[in-house]
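Review form for a predicted model. The reviewer records the input and the model, then writes brief findings.
Reviewer: anonymous (R2)
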Amino acid sequence: MKKSILFLILLSVFGFSNSFKEAVTAYNAKDFTRAAEIFQELAKQGNTSAQYNLGSLYQDGLGVKKSYQKAVELYTLAANQGDLDAQNSLGLMYMDGTGIEQNYQKAIKLFTLAMKQGNLDAYVNLGYMYSNGEGVKQNYKKAVELFTLAANQGDAKAQYNLALMYKKGEGVQQNYQKAGLPNILCQNQIYTNNYTKLL
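Model under review:
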């Protein structure tokens, strides 16, 4: 009996794994419709990575009709099960009020949960909120602290934001030399200023 249960568990795990790889392969081949179909099946089975990825497809309208509400629904399912990328993405939607009523406190909570699991984008997003006083009292020093934590781990957006803080002298003593170093690091990562939430 125990062996048959173990076999079924292994079969389901490897089944998830193979199907997920197929979805990623379809996505990379720009066959978004096929990727969405596979993610949909896995999402129904409770696969949090599939829920997150399907949410991203709905948010961007790739392979499915664009629907922020559906993206929020899927991100919420995955975030509630501890998926750090879903927590960060859902936090962004709450921060911007995209597909859901704007709620800075929920955004902060979700970014904090994602940060605890090591999501560097969440550090940058929460740093952005502190640097601009969105949902929190404006606190440049806290923003610098968050950007620094992510920048030290190689995150290009954090490096760029930290460079701006040094350039402007916000939360740190103005220092053009330090402002230049993160810019160099960013260029090494081929990062350009296309991110809409940068300072």
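Findings: The domain at 12-103 is CATH 1.25.40.10 (Serine Threonine Protein Phosphatase 5, Tetratricopeptide repeat).
Further findings: Confidence is low (pLDDT under 50) at residues 1-15, 190-199.
Recommendation: see findings above.
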